Amino acid sequence: VPILDAPEEEKVHDVSKLDPPNRRKNKKRILVTGGAGFIGSHLVDRLMDEGNMVIVVDSLFTGKKSNLERHFSNPRFEFIRQDVIEPLYVEVDQIYHLACPASPIHYKYNPIHTLKTSFMGTYNMLGLAKRTHARFLITSTSEVYGDPLIHPQVEEYWGNVNPIGERSCYDEGKRVAETLCYDFKRQNGVDIRIARIFNTYGPRMALNDGRVVSNFVGQAIRREELTVQGTGNQTRSFCYVSDQVDGLIRLMNTEDVEGPVNIGNPTEFTIKELADVVKEVVEPRVDVTYTPLTPDDPKQRKPDITKAQSKIGWNPTVELRDGLKLMALDFKERIKNGDEGW
Ligand code: NAD
Ligand code: UDP
Ligand code: UDP
């Protein structure tokens, strides 16, 4: 049939509407940037268990190949060591874009590179999503709310962020990454999801990443003093990693979710209370010591998760004490084996 006489639906050869030749039926080809890191590697475990083909792209700046060891011999799995600030050409159906250092000592190590990661990295991955028609999810952060003036934080809150402080490379980087997502959606029709992740903890966190839960658990196991910064009256809410991964997968696979979605555990603790729980669960024979607070430290943080509950049917299920026990098992093993580095 001459193309001009063909029925309307056959005139356009739209590759995105065809099944690619080398894909398992009903399984997806999924790209996870930052998949060698803490949250990324747990996400990869779940996606592999579900039978998908998974490509991890990671520069190994903070992540480790050993986090993915179990998948290396699986033909459905592929690892590419690459920085996301460079363009990437692969064919995928979904992109989970996690690549970005997340702990304050890591993102402050090379702040300009942190900003390049958030802007150029997200730009490249959105360009990839545009070309492949893949659905795109970015892990943003509660830090976009800065030192929040409303409590708990709802997604509609625009935040209170210092644009020129030491944390700004991360906070403002993620804010501009969210803006890029929305501009690719409006200008190019890219199907995007934004998860605003609140403090998440669990096995495989880097032992020396300076974050409060990894510091306290490591210190308790080594029988060192727990370093509470400032008064310890500042608050955070801690989400166990399996809950977090469940939230990300639900958000990716729910149709028509408009706007960013908070994913975090709403149970709030002061840092002093966290120290007490770690002592109780991991090692009671340690003391607490007080050290100076870092600049721009948010005083209070707790997610409002009404949107996650109603739009993607998500609720965290793991209590802090249970999650800390699981994390302590992993940390004990790694400390015993001398795995202390990033
Ligand atoms: P992580 O440091 O363990 O993982 C980040 C991964 O990204 C690492 O494997 C690292 O090597 C890789 N990476 C960093 N820069 C890269 C680059 N330019 N190119 C390629 N790879 C790069 O941190 P995480 O806690 O697993 O965080 C994952 C994501 O979740 C990040 O986007 C972070 O901003 C977000 N997040 C995490 C938390 C949390 O509490 N863990 C809270 C809010 C947001
Ligand atoms: N890009 C990529 N992989 C792709 C497609 C695009 O890494 O498969 C990057 C590339 O660097 C490009 C950017 O994403 O510059 C933005 O893509 P877009 O199509 O919006 O921009 P353009 O090609 O017009 O520069
Ligand atoms: N914090 C602490 N002791 C530590 C590390 C962190 O008291 O050894 C405090 C820090 O001042 C902050 C809170 O714990 O108020 C959470 O810090 P983290 O770096 O884990 O995450 P973020 O500030 O990004 O929420």
From TrEMBL:
Q: Which domain of life is it from?
A: Eukaryota
Please give the InterPro entries that the UniProt record associates with this protein: NAD(P)-bd_dom, NAD(P)-bd_dom_sf, UXS-like
* Domain NAD(P)-binding: start-end pairs: 31-327
Q: What is its EC number?
A: 4.1.1.35
| Gene Ontology CC entries for this record | cytoplasm
Q: Per the UniProt entry, what are the Gene Ontology biological process annotations, in alphabetical order?
A: D-xylose metabolic process; UDP-D-xylose biosynthetic process
Protein name in UniProt: UDP-glucuronate decarboxylase
Upper lineage ranks?
Answer: Eukaryota, Rhodophyta, Florideophyceae, Rhodymeniophycidae, Gracilariales
